[in-house]
Design goal:
Elements (H helix, E strand, L loop, with lengths): L17 H7 L2 H4 L3 H17 L5 H19 L12 H13 L12 H37 L4 E6 L2 E7 H26 L1 E2 L15 H8 L3 E2 L3 H6 L2 H27 L7 E2 L18 H24 L14 H21 L4 E2 L1 H10 L4 H10 L4 H18 L8 H7 L7 H5 L1 H6 L9 H14 L11
Parallel strand pairs: 3-4
Antiparallel strand pairs: 1-2, 5-6
Helix pairs in contact: 3-4, 3-6, 3-8, 4-5, 6-7, 6-12, 6-19, 7-10, 7-19, 10-11, 10-12, 11-12, 14-15
């Protein structure tokens, strides 16, 4: 682009250094905002016509040109000029080529400072709505797995040690709850994203008699921003999205970590479908859970993107500073990473085969029913702390003699405490252990069945949508 073609070239005598142009250009990443830039421009120019800041003929001419440019983008015919500084300049230059000098009136009463904030808010409204849809699909997948595998018992873990037996379905629904909180966070963030910034100008507003509420209504914004200085310098809404994606990615990584562990021979709980694993270049027997490992690995970059933008903003004086250009690449990367991760995970989960016998065996071998034995004594009047100590000694005995609790004869039990009776063997049954946790939020089959039904009801709540008026 020649020096004279830049939007701000009037103040300068010499052209920008070519290295500076290369260093400051953002078109290669902000071009994904083309649709939002054009939609915002159409709403803005309609307002200019309504307020008689430009003529109706000029308004219609500009709108037709913008609509044609939008079609060029969507049909893949738009030709980017690498010399263009950003997507705003690229679109405005093309508009000038199409309709001549009238294109110069598009930018009346508007700055690139409030324009880019509008583009980002429009973009994020759509992205958040899309993420909500992906998360709902993932929750549906988890419900289907929980319903299909309702009878499977597995060891529950604390400290990665066998703790108490639980239903696999109960474990899966724990992730349903995590993703439900992620959706709630995104909905709250959506409310703060959904604010119309146009009209703030460079930082002080504009002297033209514009109608900000008219623009907001066209674009489906319920409110307009309240302070022009804050409007052009605020990136809290981007940080919130990055925070939401970081928490979501953490949840996805925890699930991925369990899939990696469960697929090892040491656990042997699951086999992931071949389409979602890879082999080794040297060891022909290997089947590696690469997708789950990459989900775990990509979490770090999403965390880093949040820290990157927080760092950009921490020392910025009001109002706009060019540093804010650095908010986009981390955001776009996090969005792309999250959507890619959700897409592949939704496909991978149904491919998993659960090793029912192995999971039950591990639940039985790990003394996971020891708490039930302590509860048994407590219900017979033994103080829980005393019962806890007695059962701890019982477990020591079993370890020493290489036994499990179910194998001990009654006389051994009674050596540890006379309150033990024949009914202890009913308590030791792994299914009884699971179903005895019969309270809301517990792992009992009847409670998990109710939880699945309740989860289905919760999924019926309306998806976030992104409707333009």
């Amino acid at each position: 682009m020649s020096h004279s073609n830049k939007l701000w070239s009037g103040r300068f005598k010499t052209a920008t250094d070519t290295d500076v142009e290369q260093y400051t250009v953002s078109l290669h990443f902000d071009k994904r905002l083309y649709k939002y830039d054009i939609l915002g421009s159409i709403a803005h120019v309609r307002m200019l016509g309504k307020c008689r800041i430009i003529s109706h003929a000029e308004m219609h001419k500009i709108i037709r040109g913008l609509q044609e440019i939008l079609h060029e983008f969507e049909s893949g015919k738009f030709k980017y000029n690498p010399a263009d500084e950003d997507i705003h300049m690229s679109i405005e230059k093309r508009l000038h080529e199409k309709i001549g000098t009238t294109a110069g009136k598009l930018h009346t009463a508007r700055s690139r400072n409030d324009q880019i904030v509008l583009d980002m808010r429009l973009y994020l409204r759509e992205v958040i709505a899309d993420l909500d849809g992906y998360l709902k699909h993932l929750q549906q997948t988890l419900i289907q797995l929980a319903e299909k595998n309702l009878t499977i018992i597995m060891p529950g873990f604390t400290h990665l040690q066998h703790a108490q037996p639980v239903l696999l379905s109960h474990h899966l629904l724990a992730y349903f709850e995590m993703f439900d909180r992620d959706r709630d966070r995104l909905r709250e963030t959506y409310r703060r994203v959904n604010v119309m910034p146009l009209g703030a100008g460079a930082l002080a507003g504009t002297s033209f008699p514009i109608d900000r509420n008219y623009v907001a209504k066209q674009l489906g914004f319920p409110i307009i921003s309240k302070n022009s200085i804050d409007t052009v310098s605020d990136r809290d809404f981007i940080i919130e999205v990055l925070n939401d994606t970081a928490i979501l990615m953490m949840h996805l990584s925890r699930l991925a970590e369990e899939l990696v562990l469960w697929s090892t021979p040491e656990f042997g709980f699951i086999e992931i479908g071949d389409a979602f694993c890879t082999g080794s270049s040297i060891m022909p027997q290997k089947k590696n859970p690469d997708v789950a490992e990459l989900i775990r690995g990509k979490t770090g970059r999403v965390y880093g993107n949040l820290i990157s933008v927080l760092t950009v903003l921490k020392g910025l004086p009001l109002s706009y500073n060019r540093d804010l250009q650095e908010d986009k690449e981390p955001l776009f990367d996090s969005i792309d990473t999250i959507i890619g991760t959700l897409s592949v995970l939704i496909k991978m989960l149904p491919s998993i085969k659960f090793n029912v016998q192995r999971m039950r065996l591990m639940a039985e071998l790990g003394y996971a029913n020891a708490t039930d034995v302590a509860d048994y004594l407590t219900k017979k009047g033994v103080p829980f702390r005393e019962a806890h100590t007695i059962v701890g000694k019982l477990v020591q005995y079993c370890i020493r003699h290489k036994k499990i609790l179910e194998e001990l004869p009654l006389e051994i039990y009674q050596q540890f405490h006379p309150k033990f009776q024949r009914d202890i063997y009913q308590i030791l049954d792994i299914r009884h252990s699971v179903d005895s946790r019969n309270l809301p939020g517990g792992t009992a089959t009847v409670q998990v069945t109710k939880a699945i039904a309740e989860a289905k009801k919760r999924l019926k709540k309306e998806l976030l949508t992104n409707r333009y008026a």
